[in-house]
Specification:
alpha/beta; 15 helices; 42% helix
């Protein structure tokens, strides 16, 4: 098996040969990686991650048109493709930004409809197939990444409180904005599928640290059918595409609905918010999992041996039915010792399915 064949078998709960590794490093840990290894390779290549991503549809967007929505933007702030402004964080956390939501406080549907959203249908996707072929030639699985698929993209534009109120009061603004974002997500998902992506990485944070972010009824009314629309659109082109879905926090009550919508792999199963043993007991064999190693607890504050013990314990839980790609649950922050990263890698390398 090559890396692509191995990871696809693992995620499909089929026999696989080894446990791959995957994680994300914050900027300071990227510098630590370079210092420790002396390698000129990217860390995903050095540690042999099983997949690589192809670029999204390229859209020509004049972000200056959004400046009217951000009259007091902090120096160093930038405006993204969707018109959301991001102001720089502290020196200690340069990768963190403060978001400014351009449609926050606007109550007019006409004004919301007048807001310029990116036109992915008119974008350039010519690079995607070329990139996919290059990645597959390296023996890796091809990833199409579009986390912040519907809910997060919409509330980044509207503001979470405003969009929640729109949904709870059946305000037409909610339907318009969620439909507009969904339409664009469908176009992007179809484009990834046509390019030959093996994996489609979707996601919207719908859990908080200890509770769901919204009621199940609200989720099923507003978000579940739109997520299914995106997945169905990709599967109409490639029925075998593996769909991953990311949600931080306590997402356990949503799992049956994510499965019904077509999700194959749940990420990250944050152990500070979800009990993996209990989750696997109920849903193992019905969905696969990616993550489970805590980045609020084990990775920054455990010993290297505790990291390895946790990796082995979680893999043991999933041994009978399979379907666990064990990995840190989120970005590894500056507090994570380099020795703990190596301990995670070593545990995966030592494990035998």
């Amino acid at each position: 098996m090559n890396q692509r064949e191995n990871i696809l078998a693992l995620l499909r709960r089929e026999p696989y040969e080894w446990m791959p590794v995957e994680f994300s490093l914050c900027p300071s840990l990227v510098e630590e990686y370079k210092r420790r290894t002396g390698s000129e390779k990217s860390y995903d290549e050095y540690f042999q991650f099983p997949w690589a991503g192809i670029g999204d549809i390229r859209v020509q967007q004049d972000t200056s048109q959004y400046e009217q929505y951000h009259p007091n933007l902090k120096k160093g702030g930038v405006i993204d493709l969707w018109g959301v402004a991001h102001e720089p964080g502290s020196e200690a956390a340069k990768h963190m930004t403060y978001m400014r939501c351009p449609l926050k406080g606007i109550d007019s549907l006409a004004e919301v409809k007048a807001y310029p959203l990116p036109d992915f249908a008119a974008g350039d996707a010519s690079h995607q197939k070329v990139q996919a072929e290059s990645i597959r030639a390296r023996g890796l699985a091809v990833m199409g990444g579009m986390q912040c698929t519907i809910w997060e993209t919409a509330w980044y534009i509207r503001g979470m409180e405003d969009l929640m109120m729109d949904m709870m009061s059946d305000d037409p603004i909610a339907a318009y904005l969620l439909d507009a974002v969904t339409e664009r997500s469908v176009i992007r998902a179809q484009s990834y599928a046509r390019a030959g992506a093996d994996l489609l990485y979707l996601g919207d944070d719908i859990g908080m640290q200890r509770t769901p972010m919204m009621s199940i009824d609200l989720y099923c009314k507003w978000l579940k059918p739109r997520l299914k629309q995106v997945i169905d659109a990709a599967r109409a082109i490639n029925p075998n595409i593996v769909v991953l879905y990311h949600s931080c926090g306590h997402a356990t009550p949503f799992i049956p609905h994510l499965i019904e919508a077509g999700v194959d792999v749940l990420n990250p199963v944050q152990p500070e918010s979800m009990d993996f043993r209990e989750v696997y007991k109920e849903f193992g064999g019905k969905v696969s999992f990616h993550g489970t190693i805590g980045t609020q607890t084990t990775m920054p504050f455990g010993t290297p041996q505790e990291v390895k013990d946790t990796v082995f314990a979680h893999l043991e839980i999933a041994k009978e039915k399979g379907g666990l790609f064990v990995a840190p649950t989120h970005l590894l922050e500056p507090e994570v010792p380099w020795e703990n990263i190596l301990a995670y890698v070593e545990a995966c390398r030592e494990y035998r399915p």
